Write a sequence for this structure.
């Protein structure tokens, strides 16, 4: 398949590259960092700003829309005549960005003259050592932030791509397609992306998330994910008379973190290996709290990690007589690759769409999670994750190449055409 062109009766129609770029730049300028400590839904009010912008844009395209009070925007493109019985599709993206790097006041920069090598930003540079993929896109427009914030391509590139795909269908009513719904969620980055989702709206639909990274990648599995909170209880005593009496909860928390195996941390693992990720410590002498994330692809290995933490908690208690460590475990999501059932075409068509557009498909496990993990668990069917082109996500060096965004939008269109053609002509 050639670049940003797509299938059969729409093979001569192209994604509007300039419009795709313009909407992406508009979206990233809306700061939407989520906040894991907030109890609100969404966790930050700024996410409503982008939801309402998208609501207006979807209205302008004539989509049937509904914005819930929990921060989920549903926008549906009705089927063309004769395709009413086609399998309804649903594409998920999320409006929030990670709080791991500054996300407010984003100043996007379009590098139109990139000639290869390190990419200079207004503040700093992206090196080929950290981003070897950059070399593939010499001569192509590259979008970054100014180096002081993240860009927000995770997942605003995905949002721009699905919006451009649907806009293309709206502009060309002669192109046959079944029902297509876009769902924009909030708080995906803090593990709450599906909390406000009305599953009754998506039952019976084939679902995909558009939240991946590298061009050509297709993610069909993800981590098993647990959050562990360790509550360390000490015994405060005046430090002047503390010998043999004081039990410092802060020291207990520090020891617990130091006992985590360094070779099983995020910074020391890749590929198929899971990790322990101490996310934060807070507290005082009498009580301290440690939050630790556990990630692994295999359920048996996850059980091992949980038991290892219990053993470490006992070791800390032994080192601090009179102190206590209690652990609470919360499952965040499961490896969606272990979901049994569903139509095999869900994955097969995704593979074919990516291969047709990009020339090859790289089927991978996500070293993370998406809304798709929870959706797959609830629906009992796979929810593959499509690439967006976002790279070095959650960092101030995040970047995306415009041609990859065009091809990501074309993959969405190709996927729609595969489902439509198979059910209305009986053949691919």
């Amino acid at each position: 398949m050639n670049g940003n062109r797509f299938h059969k009766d729409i093979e001569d129609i192209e994604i509007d590259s300039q419009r795709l770029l313009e909407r992406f730049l508009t979206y990233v300028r809306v700061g939407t960092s989520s906040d894991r400590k907030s109890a609100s839904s969404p966790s930050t009010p700024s996410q409503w700003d982008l939801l309402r912008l998208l609501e207006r844009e979807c209205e302008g395209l004539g989509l049937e829309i509904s914005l819930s009070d929990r921060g989920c925007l549903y926008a549906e493109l009705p089927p063309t005549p004769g395709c009413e019985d086609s399998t309804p599709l649903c594409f998920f993206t999320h409006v929030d960005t990670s709080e791991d790097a500054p996300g407010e006041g984003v100043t996007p920069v379009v590098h139109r003259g990139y000639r290869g090598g390190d990419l200079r930003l207004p503040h700093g540079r992206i090196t080929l050592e950290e981003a070897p993929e950059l070399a593939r896109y010499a001569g192509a427009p590259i979008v970054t932030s100014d180096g002081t914030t993240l860009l927000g391509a995770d997942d605003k590139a995905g949002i721009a791509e699905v919006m451009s795909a649907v806009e293309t269908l709206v502009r060309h009513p002669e192109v046959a397609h079944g029902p297509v719904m876009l769902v924009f969620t909030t708080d995906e980055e803090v593990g709450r992306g599906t909390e406000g989702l009305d599953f009754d709206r998506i039952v019976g639909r084939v679902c995909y998330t558009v939240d991946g990274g590298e061009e050509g990648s297709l993610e069909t599995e993800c981590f098993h994910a647990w959050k562990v909170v360790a509550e360390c209880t000490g015994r405060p005593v005046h430090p002047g008379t503390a010998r043999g009496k004081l039990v410092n909860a802060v020291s207990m928390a520090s020891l617990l973190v130091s006992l985590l195996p360094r070779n099983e941390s995020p910074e020391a693992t890749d590929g198929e290996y899971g990790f322990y990720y101490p996310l934060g410590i807070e507290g005082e002498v009498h009580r301290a709290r440690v939050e630790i994330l556990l990630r692994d692809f295999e359920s048996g290995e996850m059980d091992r990690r949980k038991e290892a933490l219990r053993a470490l908690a006992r070791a800390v208690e032994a080192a601090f007589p009179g102190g206590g460590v209690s652990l609470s475990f919360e499952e965040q999501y499961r490896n969606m690759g272990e979901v049994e059932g569903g139509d095999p075409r869900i994955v097969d068509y995704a593979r074919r769409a990516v291969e047709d557009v990009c020339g090859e498909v790289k089927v991978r496990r996500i070293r993370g999670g998406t809304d798709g993990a929870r959706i797959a668990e609830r629906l009992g069917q796979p929810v593959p994750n499509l690439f967006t082109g976002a790279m070095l996500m959650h960092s101030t060096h995040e970047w995306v190449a415009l041609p990859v965004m065009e091809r990501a939008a074309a993959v969405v269109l190709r996927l729609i055409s595969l489902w439509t053609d198979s059910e209305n002509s009986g053949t691919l």
Summary: Helices lie at 17-28, 46-60, 153-171, 249-259, 299-319, 345-358, 371-379, 402-424. The CA atoms of residues 233 and 287 lie 5 Å apart. The first strand starts at residue 64 and ends at 67.
